[in-house]
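CATEGORY: protein folding

GOAL: derive structure tokens
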Amino acid sequence: MISTTQIANEIESRFNEIAAGANLPFVFRIYANIGEYKAAEEDPTRKKLPTPVVNGVLIAFPAQIVPLQGVKSFAMQQLLTVYAPVKPNAEVNGVGIEEVMTVVNAFAESSAGLAGAMSDGENNYAYVLAPQLPSVGSEGWELGFAAIPVSVSLAWQFIEGGVVGNNVKITVGGQEAVLLEGGFSRTRIADTNPREGSEEMTTVIGQQGLTLRVLVPYISGGVGQQLVTDTLTGALDKTYAVTYSDGVAFTDSAPFAAKMVATNIAFSFNPGTTCSVEATFVLADGEVYGNA
């Protein structure tokens, strides 16, 4: 099972990547609990570090395990609190609430729907992360120095060896689709009759078809723009190069690939809502498909 310490290390690495990318003159240390933080603060060597440190504490709530035998899947809820220091020399060492908020906001925005994999040393777990927008508290002295707490609620979903929807990557016409919904279906047409005088009905599959359905937002330069253009001005011979990968059956290096045609495109634009485009694709005539 993935531990809070592992997650704290992942968050710390991501925070420091963002801070380094923005050329901010400080680093982050994220602790899995208050005890770890207080032990680190009591370490005299920390006071001699050449780079200012911004501290954070990750508070874990009880995990919820999916009650299915043979499937290791669980959800974790956590509260991440980063303490932006408030002190007279804040502008001198470059650490202040504005700089810390830059990193925390960037983390929350870039982590929405983030999917990946973690290992507990024995098993690999696919995950998806859903953070909330940061909230800023009032200045206090809870940790022994003047600081403003900045908190982010985190919700994780883990499944061992599985696939979460955010792991699925579909490209249409060379562009990766931002999926609101999607799915493949295969329809097989059966011929069911008694065979060779037998009273028992048997079935032979005579035909089959593969269908892909996607629902995507209408955003500039995205797959939605392609589909809207096809809706209004498309030709009968319009085809799309489609690829699919999920990290299990098909990988990024060896995705499923096919040339497909859109049999139906529906473009919705209701006032007050995000415009979206839904399309249904089937294999193009004569298409040979499989791993790319």
